[in-house]
Amino acid sequence: MENTDFIAPNDVATVCNQIDRLGEKAHLLAGGTDLMVAINLRRLRPEKLIYLGQCGLDRIEVANQSLVIGATATLKSIIQSEAVKRNAPLLVDACQSIGSPAIRNAATLGGNVCNASPSADGAIALLALDTNVTIVSTRGERSVALKAFFTGPGKTVLEKDELVKEFIIPAATANSKFGWAKIGQRKAEIIGIVCVAVNMTVEGGKCQNVRIALGAVAPTPILATKAAALLEGKVLDAQLIAQAAQTAADEISPIDDIRASAWYRKQMTNELVARILSGE
Amino acid sequence: MKHDISLTVNGDTYHLSVEPWRTLNEVLREDLNLTGTKLGCGSGDCGACTVMVDGKSVSSCLTLAVEMDGRQILTVEGLAPSGETLHPIQEAFIEKGAIQCGFCTPGMELSALNLLKTNPSPSDAQIRSAISGNLCRCTGYNKIVDAIAEAGRRIKHPSKARR
């Protein structure tokens, strides 16, 4: 990492100017829990590090029935936030399953999403929560639905000069139901073999706005849209739950890798979706 | 290009000129000679490098020294600043046999502090969760869990220390 230079802008406009000027030479450093690993393992030698810890993007607040979480809010601050517990408790569960206390004290939600890992717990929960991403650059701001944000493993729609500013999450209502499940080789500090996040509203016993997000079973976090459609407008029962869980497993094409086989991932997707829908 | 930073470590303020690629772990160990903080995996998995920054535990191997301008850092050396009277966490680790080779101990103790400063009466599960990012290859963890529970009791009731 010799010859790396470091800047710590105090505002977002300066960050944008620097990214615009430096292009691919620039690497954004927030919590450092992924980037610094790559640097320590000599996989990455950035020419310029732009530190985001001082540019004021760590706010967590409620505005217009939405929860707004700044890109550099730490996982710990999200877990502790009363606003997040009230308005997006699913995200609290997902963030709690990432890393260890020391990692969660440093790691940011923006980093979890922008690294675009198919198994990013925070991103999977945000996908189930129908999150919009606010992106900023010297050209202005734009908003992208998170389901359209990922384009492949480690790849997003972000242009070279763009920065994720914040996440806009529709606030939970009294009728919101949610569930989070993750399977890994141990409970802490583990990349999920399969992660499932479910979010829906239940009105008069009927499921509505069902979103089932799956992690580590595709090149990006994905929505099991066929399984969700099966549940829409219906009352949950054992037969419907089994059918939806099987549909979710059928609509994914996971791969064999170092952590698990494709076969196991399909079995566990079925199992975890069924467990969440059964309220287990 | 070097960057000038001022940071407080264990109550002492240092003005340093550091290259931007150097980690907090390297600067603590090599420049300040505070070798209690260890370097293990370099990837945030083992917890041997855990220190407190502004009251929160972080992996010093994943933190650049230049990020630390104006920050307050606590290392294991700061737990017992006099070098004579030990911190209740350290006393409990010794009493309960929670130290064998000792390599994980500084990180374990700071993760314990990160828990006990807000929750001096943790459950077994809360203790295990608090040290879930700290690997120990000697003790089998049970004695460390016992020690952290005991440290919590000592912090809550200092008079019962040294029973």
Describe the protein's topology.
The complex is a heterodimer of chains A (280) and B (163).
Chain A: E1 5-7, H1 12-22, E2 26-29, H2 35-40, E3 48-51, E4 60-63, E5 66-70, H3 75-80, H4 82-87, H5 89-96, H6 101-106, H7 109-114, H8 121-128, E6 132-137, E7 140-145, E8 150-152, E9 155-156, E10 163-170, E11 176-183, E12 194-203, E13 206-215, E14 222-223, H9 225-231, H10 238-250, H11 262-277
Parallel strand pairs in A: 1-3, 2-3
Antiparallel strand pairs in A: 4-5, 5-10, 6-7, 6-10, 8-9, 11-12, 12-13, 13-14
Helix pairs in contact in A: 5-8, 9-10, 10-11
Chain B: E1 3-9, E2 12-18, H1 24-31, E3 50-53, E4 56-59, E5 72-74, H2 76-79, H3 88-95, H4 105-116, H5 124-130, H6 142-156
Parallel strand pairs in B: 1-5
Antiparallel strand pairs in B: 1-2, 3-4, 3-5
Question: Tags for this entry?
Answer:
heterodimer; A: 280 residues; alpha+beta; Uridine Diphospho-n-acetylenolpyruvylglucosamine Reductase, domain 2; Uridine Diphospho-n-acetylenolpyruvylglucosamine Reductase, domain 3; 5-stranded antiparallel β-sheet; 4-stranded antiparallel β-sheet; 33% helix; globular; B: 163 residues; DNA polymerase, domain 1; 5-stranded mixed β-sheet; 6 helices; 15% strand
Fold and architecture overview:
The complex is a heterodimer of chains A (280) and B (163). With 280 residues, chain A is of the alpha+beta class. Chain A folds into three domains: 5-51, 2-Layer Sandwich (Uridine Diphospho-n-acetylenolpyruvylglucosamine Reductase, domain 2), CATH 3.30.43; 60-170, Uridine Diphospho-n-acetylenolpyruvylglucosamine Reductase, domain 3, CATH 3.30.465; 176-277, Enolase-like, domain 1 (2-Layer Sandwich), CATH 3.30.390.50. Chain A is built from eleven helices and 14 strands. In chain A, strands 4-5-10-6-7 form a five-stranded antiparallel beta sheet. In chain A, strands 11-12-13-14 form a four-stranded antiparallel beta sheet. A three-stranded parallel beta sheet of chain A has the order 1-3-2, covered by helices on one side. In chain A, strand 4 and strand 5 form a beta hairpin. In chain A, helix 10 (238-250) runs antiparallel to helix 11 (262-277). The longest helix of chain A has 16 residues, at 262-277. Chain B is α+β, with helices and mostly antiparallel strands. Chain B folds into two domains: 3-77, Beta-grasp domain (Ubiquitin-like (UB roll), Roll); 88-157, DNA polymerase, domain 1 (Orthogonal Bundle), CATH 1.10.150.120. A five-stranded mixed beta sheet of chain B has the order 2-1-5-3-4. In chain B, helix 3 (88-95) crosses helix 6 (142-156) and helix 4 (105-116) crosses helix 6. Chain B is globular, with a radius of gyration of 16 Å. The A-B interface holds A 1-2, 4-6, 8, 29, 32-33, 36-37, 39-41, 49, 51, 53, 76, 99-103, 105-106, 187-189 and B 1, 3, 19-21, 23, 42-45, 47, 50, 56-59, 61-64, 66-67, 69, 111, 114-115, 129-130, 132-134.
